[in-house]
Target: HMA domain-containing protein
Amino acid sequence: MQNTVVLKVGMSCQGCVGAVKRVLEKMEGVESFDIDHKEQKVTVKGNVQPEEVFQTVAKTGKKTSFWETAEPPAEVVAEPKPAETALGTKQAEAEPETKTTEAVITTA
Model:
C-alpha cells in the first residue's frame, strides 16, 4: 500500500537536512522522499505508516510534526447543526466540540 506522509521538520542547516536524509534512507518501505529545507517540509512516499515515519524523523532530535493543510478532510465537509441531530437540541449543545487535525496521507 503506497502512502504519502508529509511532515514539518525544524531544519536550520544542511547538517539537519543530512540527518533527516540518513534516517529516511535506512527506513524500511521508503520508496522516495523529498526534503525542502526552505519550507521545512519532508515528503515521504512508500509502503510506510505515518506514525512510524514521524517517530523515525523525530529521533533525529529535530522538532517534528505532521504537515497541516488549510482545507478540511474530505470526510468532514460540514457538521450538522445541533437542531438537526438525532440527539435533540439540548443534548447536542451539551456535547463538547472537537477539532480535527489533518495529516496529509494518501494511498494508491
Summary: The mean pLDDT is 80. DSSP finds three helices and five strands in the chain. The CA atoms of residues 27 and 52 lie 9 Å apart. The longest helix spans residues 14-26.
